[in-house]
Amino acid sequence: MPPSLSIIVPCFNEQATIGGLLEAILAQSHPAADMEVIIADGMSTDATRARIAAFSQQHRQLAVRIVDNPARSIPAGLNLAIAAAQSSTLLRLDAHSSPHPEYVARSLQALDAGRGWNVGGVWEIRPGQDTWLARAIAAAAAHPFGVGDARYRYTTHAGAVDTVPFGTFRRELIERIGAFDETLQTNEDYEFNARIRLAGGTVWLDPAIRSAYYARPTLSALARQYWRYGYWKWRMLRRYPGTLRPRQAIPPLFVLALLGLGGLSLLWAPAAWLLGAVVVSYALLLLAAAAHKAILARQPSLLLGMPLAMMTMHLSWGGAFLWSLLSSLAGAPHKNGTKPV
Predict the structure, then answer these.
(1) Single pTM value for the model
(2) What does DSSP say about strands 63-68 and 35-41: parallel, antiparallel, or unpaired?
(3) pLDDT of residue 285
(4) pLDDT above 70: residue 19
(5) pLDDT of 293-331, one tens digit each?
(6) Alpha-carbon gap, residue 96 to 340, rounded angstroms
(7) CATH number for position 205
(8) Dist CA 96 CA 212 (whole Å)
(9) Is residue 15 helix, strand or coil?
(10) DSSP assignment, residue 297?
C-alpha cells in the first residue's frame, strides 16, 4: 500500500541537521509505516547523503528516498520531491527544522477539518550552534522588532494568515494553482501561498502545530540569508504588489533613509543632524529590545548580540530589496542563487 503522507524536504550540505530532522520524523505520533520522506538533495558535497543512508539502514520502518536536485534551488527541489512522492497528501519540512512529535498528526487534523488549503504552524527559533552569538541570533530572529509581525514566529491564536512555514496540502492543490515557482530562489513559499489566497483559498496557521527551526549561527551566514530574502522578495512583489506588508516595506525605507540623509548631509548640514537622530533612535530601540530579552532570559550577552543580529537582518534585507528593485528597473538580469536556505 502507498503511504498516506509524503514528507518533502529540500536540502544541500545539511550534515549537521539532517539526522536530527529524520529522528524527529521517526518520533512522530503518526505511524512511521504510514509515511515516506522524499529528500531533494542539491548534490551535497559533505556527509549529508551518508548520514541519510546510515539512518535508513538503522530505521527501515520509515521509508526515506533521495532525489537529485541538480538545479540546487528550493523550488526545483520541492517540485522534484512532489513528482516522486506517492501520496496525495504532502507535508513540507526543512533540513534546518525539527517538528514536535504531534506535528504530523495535528497538521493532518487541520487539513482534514478543512481549515485551509495549506496549513502550518509556528516556529520555535533555536540557536544554530552553542555559542553566545548563535543564541543572540536566535533570540533576534524570534523577536517582533527583528522580524515584524510575522505571526508564525510568535502567535498563540489559530487563524487565516498570509503565509506559513513549510505547510501541508493535497496534491490536487498543485494541479489547481500550479507548482512552486522555480524562477524564485527564495520567497517561493510566500508566492505559493499568495496564489492560494488569490484563488480564493485559505492559508491556515495553528499554533498547536509546532516545529523548532535552527537559526544561522554567525552574522555572515545571517547576512547572506537575509540578503537572499530581500533580493527575491522584490522579484516576487513585482508579480503580486498587493501582498506587500508594512513589515516588508520598513527595512528598505530605513536603508533608503540612511543613504539619502547620508548623501544629503554632505551638502546640507541639518541633514547630518537628522541622520544622527535616526541612527541614535534606532540604536536605542535595538538596545531596549535586547535589554528586555536579556533580563527575561537572564543572558547578559544578548545585550550585545541581539542588536548586532537585528541590525544585520534589517540592513541586509533592506539593502538587497533596494538593489533588486534598482537592478530590475535598470533591466539587469538577476543571478540565480545556488544554495537552498
Answers:
(1) 0.87
(2) parallel
(3) 96
(4) yes
(5) 999 999 999 999 999 999 999 999 999 999 999 998 887
(6) 11
(7) 3.90.550.10
(8) 8
(9) coil
(10) H
Euclidean distance between CA atoms 84 and 38, whole angstroms: 7
Residue 225 lies in a domain: no
174 and 208 in a single domain? The answer is yes
Do 163 and 106 belong together in one domain? yes
From the centroid of its chain, how far is CA 311?
Answer: 18
Identity (one letter) of the amino acid at 112?
Answer: D
Report pLDDT digits (tens) over 242-296: 888 887 889 999 999 999 999 999 999 999 999 999 999 999 999 999 999 999 9
Rounded distance, CA 17 to CA 130, Å? 14
Q: For the chain, how far is it from start to end, CA to CA, in angstroms? A: 34
pLDDT tens-digit readout, 155-168: 778 999 999 988 99
Q: Provide the domain limits for residue 304.
A: 241-329
Q: How confident is the model at residue 335 (pLDDT cuts 50, 70, 90)?
A: low
- Which of 109-113's residues contact partners 24+ apart within 8 Å by CB, and which partners? 110/168, 110/204, 110/206, 110/209, 111/168, 111/169, 111/170
Q: CA–CA separation, 39 vs 57, rounded Å?
A: 16
Q: Where are the alpha helices (H) located in the chain, listed in sequence order?
A: 18-26, 48-58, 74-84, 103-112, 132-141, 144-147, 171-177, 188-198, 219-237, 246-264, 269-297, 302-329
Residue entry with cell 501541508: 168
Same-domain status, 199 and 251: no
State the total domains in the chain. 2
DSSP letters, 100-121, are -TTHHHHHHHHHHTTS-SEEEE
User: What is the pLDDT averaged over residues 167-189?
Assistant: 93
The residue among 151, 240, 232, 230 whose CA lies nearest residue 195 is 240
